[in-house]
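Worked example 4.2. Below are the chains of a multi-component assembly; read each line carefully before continuing.
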Amino acid sequence: MISWAYINNEFIKEEQAVLHVRDLSILRGYAIFDFFRFSSFRPVFIDQHLARLQSSAGGLGLSIEKDNQELKAITKELIERNKASNGGIRITVTGGISENGYNPSRSCLVITQHNFDELTPEQFEKGIHLLSFEHQRQLPHIKTSDYIMGISLQPWIREQKADDVLFMKNRIITECPRANIFTVNPAGQLCTPAAGILQGVTRKMVMQLAAAHYEVIEKDISLEDIYLAQEVFITSTTKTLLPVRMVDHHSIGKGNSPVGTHILQLYNAVSSVASI
Amino acid sequence: MISWAYINNEFIKEEQAVLHVRDLSILRGYAIFDFFRFSSFRPVFIDQHLARLQSSAGGLGLSIEKDNQELKAITKELIERNKASNGGIRITVTGGISENGYNPSRSCLVITQHNFDELTPEQFEKGIHLLSFEHQRQLPHIKTSDYIMGISLQPWIREQKADDVLFMKNRIITECPRANIFTVNPAGQLCTPAAGILQGVTRKMVMQLAAAHYEVIEKDISLEDIYLAQEVFITSTTKTLLPVRMVDHHSIGKGNSPVGTHILQLYNAVSSVASI
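Applying the procedure described above to all two chains together yields the following structure tokens:
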């Protein structure tokens, strides 16, 4: 039960957390955000998420009227008020209300708490099925609120009995709508796309942790490379690391995830000691 | 002074026209809309706008819980309540509040009234300056709330002392962020891009009206074609028809608009008799 949210300068009851319909997030889809977990009341990798939040805001010319120390203090109080030990925090910065309905003036800051279920061992074992789709997200390095393409493809994904899409440009893969992607290629190298992607916090952590054990390479990966990989997995804040078992109805590798399992163990060890 | 708005099933005070921050329009940029003028309390070309609204909603899998007759009746009452004889009406359909924050369930209907100033003869005479920019809008045939690219380019547009951008893909032009584009080529034909665009209501009306006087062609238009055109103009509901005097700091034609002026006269004659 999430009781509290924060908008601009005050904590408010969550059910009263509203924006006027003239806010540019509604009129023009003009907003950025970041999302991070908290565990045992402690935000995980918050510095990395706040750094990206500031970068995204700068990318859209939005200023945040709080510095990172203030954002941390507000987040801490929000988690305490809501009394749940685990969950997610979303910090959204919108274009605010604009005189001409187009040019942003004073941004609006919204902080909300969200439930999310930790992935189970069964979900890890089962993995997911992705469908490749030609599309390059606009401004991919900025974490905007734009998920139109991924969401509009949901009926097709359901019809194909798949789980999500994998975007690619000229058959060079980039990312999923809400996750980065990695392959373990036939030579045993860990590969991940370098360009046209959101720089995921989990992606970066995985690259750093894996580097002690595997050769890690940022490079172009074709759809054919995906089909021939030993392992494929996605990474994100909500899913951490999740194996991809099928792409376009092709099975990946031997259907197991020794590398993914190993890296997830390393990740869990680090995230359990990360704190505000 | 706009006093009233409409959300879902009720008229509400405009200052109370709000959406919860968990609405998918805010969380995921998932919303469509349409916008039309009214003049002397009468909506202009409302049937065409409602047809496109329904098409946009279908394109994103959103259902509108009112039929077009009901939408017309609500619009009529909203205009009467607000007591202004001229302005604009925006009908927005959002993804609504979703259990998992991603998949739309029950959409939300928002109808708001907006002021807008009719263009003056001086603005027509002055025209505008466009800057070409490589970008293809996603799902261009659907009128989504996504204006991220156009708005994020505003600082560059201001710096260049220009007025807006002209999107193109591989140097084949498509449209402006909020308007369609036409050229009068050296052979005197009226040309407009056929693909990768929003099917503008004003664009269609201009094509129909012009066909009695000019050869009208939907075709690929390169940036070089633009530079060599006799005339260039944009069309939209808010701007009707506005000459483009410069593109990328190149002057267009002789700096006058005989064809644009003629077509605008034809358009104004028709729109003045259009009614609900």
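Take a moment to check your reading of the output against the notes. The first helix of chain A runs from residue 24 to 28. Chain A touches chain B at residues 5, 7, 15, 17-31, 59-61, 92, 94-95, 101-104, 110, 112, 114, 135, 138-139, 144-149, 151-152, 154-155 (CB under 8 Å).
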